[in-house]
Amino acid sequence: MSPSASDAVVVAGAGIGGLAAALCLARAGKRVALFEKAPKIEEVGAGLQIAPNAGRILQGLGLSAALDANSLLPESIIIRRATDGAELSRMPLAGARERFGAPFRLFHRADLQNLLLDAARASEKIAIRTDARVGDFEEEDGKLFLRVHGSAGPEDIEAAGLIGADGVRSSVRAFLFRDERDAPFYSGCTAWRALLPAETVPTALRAKEVNLWLGRGAHVVHYPLRGGEIVNAVVIVEDGEVEPASNEPMRDGPSLLEAADFERCAPQLRDLIASHDSWRRWPLWIRPALRSWTRGAVTLLGDAAHPMVPFLAQGAAQAIEDAEALGQAFAGGASAAAAFARYEGARLSRATAVQTASRRQGRFAHAGFPLAQARDAVMSLIGGRGMLERNAWLYR
Ligand SMILES: Cc1cc2nc3c(=O)[nH]c(=O)nc-3n(C[C@H](O)[C@H](O)[C@H](O)COP(=O)(O)OP(=O)(O)OC[C@H]3O[C@@H](n4cnc5c(N)ncnc54)[C@H](O)[C@@H]3O)c2cc1C
């Protein structure tokens, strides 16, 4: 298939959202041209929790065997107090497959992206082009024209529709709304990430569990990956309104303990953070919530549409939900403009609610005295099953 074919829908961006969208559109019978600006499709970053709401959709694409082969299933999510390690809650995940239609899965990001990429490459409806940055576009007489930039120079192509799956710094979004107030902004938090060889992690923290440690103004998440060979760890630190002017892409464990105010914390947590000397900086940028993602035959998906702080681990999951809704919106041979309006109607309020809830979760996780005491008391009162129930609206 020629990617410049005018009946193809163009997806800009081959992240997890763009790949999932291409697969869902292809399943709906659409031809897709997937353009990625990078010369090679590869995921940077570390671990990814894929909650049942997204896992169910990927299973529906016929990917169950690949998902199971590439993921680890945690037994529970354990919430602990950072200062003394006290267990505040243990959310049991064993029954998730029966309750929500898919288990909780833990992936190395690259493994999930590769399995989606393999499925996209195997589809005759999907043409993938790398080194192809989608630039400006215009709609004229019901036709959509867009400019694609590659190392060989710019090229104008006609498309049936354009989906901006190009991440938080989406240029499709910038061209769509041309509004300075819509610019990305720093969320006030930085994530410091590391992949730790399991043997360097305290034995008690290597179990098949997602661990969440709550501190004042900071929290830590860690879980095992790839059969338990490595542990994905993220320390999220509040730094204030403005991104710290820092050109340190890495931090060592002791200075990270200090930045997170974890100098007096549970010994296991201190060992986990202090033992590693190259924590990688990942400032968390977001954008304002939008009232609409769509104009005519152009729409947005995933982080381009609704970037969120990762405190509910739902950014990629919501992108996958978008992808499914897009595929469904083309049912019955709808035009791109009609399908995108239908897609937005199906998705906008839920994705915005998850965006808002993710921010609220940050305040809950980072509370100090006396709110933290109240939070901890409520958690032990409602128990692990009750905590899981609180999140059931996300996972259903
Ligand atoms: C610390 C952290 C932890 C997280 N943990 C989780 C988790 O556990 N579970 C979860 O569900 N989510 C999690 N998330 C969120 C998740 O990573 C994102 O929501 C998700 O990766 C967004 O995918 P996307 O495809 O929308 O965008 P991206 O992954 O940003 O992909 C965008 C793609 O578009 C390409 N691109 C950009 N501009 C153009 C252009 N003009 N033309 C062509 N291509 C272009 C880029 O090169 C890139 O490949 C986490 C995020 C962070 C920061």
3D architecture notes:
- The chain has helices at 16-27, 52-70, 96-100, 109-122, 171-177, 253-259, 267-274, 315-329, 336-365, 371-390, 392-395; strands at 9-12, 32-35, 47-50, 76-81, 87-92, 105-108, 126-129, 133-140, 143-150, 153-159, 161-164, 185-197, 209-215, 218-225, 230-238, 250-251, 279-286, 298-300.
- The mean pLDDT is 94.
- It has two domains: 9-71 and 109-184 and 288-362, FAD/NAD(P)-binding domain; 185-286 and 371-395, D-Amino Acid Oxidase, Chain A, domain 2.
- The strands form four sheets. An eight-stranded mixed β-sheet has the order 5-4-13-14-15-12-17-16. A five-stranded parallel β-sheet has the order 7-2-1-11-18, sandwiched between helices.
- Helix 1 runs parallel beside helix 8 (315-329) and helix 6 packs across helix 7 (267-274).
- Strand 14 and strand 15 form a beta hairpin.
- By secondary structure, the chain is of the alpha/beta class.
- The protein contains eleven helices and 18 strands.
- It is 36% helix and 28% strand.
- Bound molecules: flavin-adenine dinucleotide (FAD).
Topology:
Blueprint lengths: L8 E4 L3 H12 L4 E4 L11 E4 L1 H19 L5 E6 L5 E6 L3 H5 L4 E4 H14 L3 E4 L3 E8 L2 E8 L2 E7 L1 E4 L6 H7 L7 E13 L11 E7 L2 E8 L4 E9 L11 E2 L1 H7 L7 H8 L4 E8 L11 E3 L14 H15 L6 H30 L5 H20 L1 H4 L1
Parallel strand pairs: 1-2, 1-11, 2-7, 4-13, 11-18
Antiparallel strand pairs: 3-6, 4-5, 8-9, 9-10, 12-15, 12-17, 13-14, 14-15, 16-17
